Amino acid sequence: MELISLGPQLNQYASLIVLLLLFVDGAIFGLAIKKGITSIILIVIGLVLASFVGLAIPFLSLTVVLNFISGFIASEISHLGPLFLTFPVLWILGLLIGVWKG
């Protein structure tokens, strides 16, 4: 069973190319996660500042947003437990480097 089809001259390097692609994929996901977390933090800061000024979005308050975020994170953690252990080590390493350097 072939991992990827590269042609006869590169076929011997297929496993190395797959490992490199897993690392790069993890790094890209890590960068996206870091940018997403930064956006969420800035949204929460904006809601807090708006509440001090007296502005508010109807039917949306800081407690509603924080309850939704905490419920979402708790739900994802319960689903990621066994799945997280099956990810390749290089993907996890790329993810951590992407979050750290992003």
Description:
The chain is mainly α and 102 residues long. The protein is built from 3 helices and no strands. The chain has helices at residues 14-53, 62-84, 89-101. It is elongated, with a radius of gyration of 20 Å.
What structural keywords apply?
single chain, 102 residues, mainly alpha, 3 helices, 75% helix, elongated
Binned strand content: under 5%
Which geometry do the CA atoms define? elongated
Give the H and E element order. Answer: HHH
Distance between the termini: 36 Å
Helix fraction? over 70%
Secondary structure blueprint with pairings:
Layout: H1 14-53, H2 62-84, H3 89-101
Helix pairs in contact: 1-3
Summarize the entry for a quick read.
It contains 3 helices and no strands.
